[in-house]
Amino acid sequence: MKSVVLVKLKLLFVxxxxxxxxxxxxxxxxxxxxxxxxxxxxxHYVLTEMLGYEPLVEHNEDGKPMIEGxxxxxxxxxxxxxxxxxxxxxxxxxxxYVSDRVNRISSRFLRDDEVFAGTTDKLIAWCAKETMYKLFxxxxxxxxxxxxxxxxxxxxxxxxxxxLKFQCECSSKYILTYTWY
Length: 181
What we know:
This protein is 23% helix and 39% strand. By secondary structure, it is α+β, with helices and mostly antiparallel strands. The strands form four sheets. The protein has a five-stranded antiparallel β-sheet, with helices on one face. A hairpin with a 2-residue loop joins strand 6 and strand 7 (80-86). The protein starts with a strand and ends with a strand.
């Protein structure tokens, strides 16, 4: 069951916090200004609202973010940051702003057995692959090592033959995907 909480932040931002996996996975989403500093500040704001304190975020040798006591994944795109946390599950999240530029690069990340005509399905596939890549970051998967079925919301790590259901939120401004394992 999912629940959604909206939190006012400094009277400028609204952080949307969603719980999934019976409350064991928490997703934060924030609309931000453009730029690297806004992304960094946005992640900090979201994490502080999610946890109730200012966490120390470190990174492992693969660049994956780490917070003591939590599994974490972070994503940002033009105008948004997304964070997923869990004490119990490994997690992955990706967010991408909606545009047709994915059509120009789809041959670089879609497998021969993934044929999508529409831009939305290609964006979902891109986000789901990035989500799975982050979830299994230590395996250094190539995007073509990951197979996506957007209609069934399934994503497969082909190297380990692990298929997971991913959650997807499509808006007119962004595509957000996340999963846990």
